[in-house]
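Project outcomes to date are best conveyed with an example. Our students and postdoctoral researchers have been running inverse folding experiments weekly, and each run begins with a structure described purely in tokens. The record below, which covers 156 residues, was selected by the lab manager from last quarter's runs and is presented without edits.
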């Protein structure tokens, strides 16, 4: 393989892996990238469910711990955003669906702001910082399988 062809191939591989390596994205971006929430939901079991047989965390104690850990994750994200000079101009609603591997690492963090809730530039900066945050974040709960948790959030 010639040097020029090799360099072209290398650049294409870097672009490909960087675009698919992004873990935090809007629901719409996930759809375009072939990672729709429906697809991910087929790979990740719900952390909690009205029917405990279908949930990863079945007991009331596990579910209480999940709620506590999930709230801490959202609070930790807020602290991280503030420490990185990201400020919300007003209370901002969002919907999150987060996909975890059994060890507690975040595989995907999908989010959606209601239409016209925030400026496009602000959303992109949120997404950039969110990707930095989830890169090293470790959810304290472990499981025997992949799991997902979702919720509405109001950022202040």
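After processing, the design step wrote out the following sequence:
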């Amino acid at each position: 393989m010639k040097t020029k062809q090799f360099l072209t191939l290398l650049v294409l591989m870097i672009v490909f892996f960087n675009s698919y390596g992004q873990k935090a994205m809007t629901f719409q971006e996930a759809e375009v990238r072939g990672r729709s929430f429906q697809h991910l939901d087929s790979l990740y079991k719900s952390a909690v469910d009205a029917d405990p047989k279908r949930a990863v965390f079945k007991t009331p104690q596990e579910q209480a711990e999940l709620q506590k850990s999930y709230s801490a994750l959202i609070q930790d994200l807020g602290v991280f955003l503030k420490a990185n000079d990201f400020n919300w101009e007003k209370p901002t609603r969002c919907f999150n669906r987060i996909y975890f591997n059994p060890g507690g690492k975040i595989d995907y963090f999908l989010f959606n702001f209601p239409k016209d809730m925030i400026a496009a530039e602000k959303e992109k900066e949120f997404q950039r910082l969110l990707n930095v945050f989830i890169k090293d974040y470790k959810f304290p709960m472990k499981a025997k399988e992949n799991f997902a948790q979702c919720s509405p959030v109001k950022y202040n």
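The helical segments are 3-21, 27-32, 37-43, 60-83, 120-136. Residues 60-83 form the longest helix (24 residues). The training component of this project remains on track.
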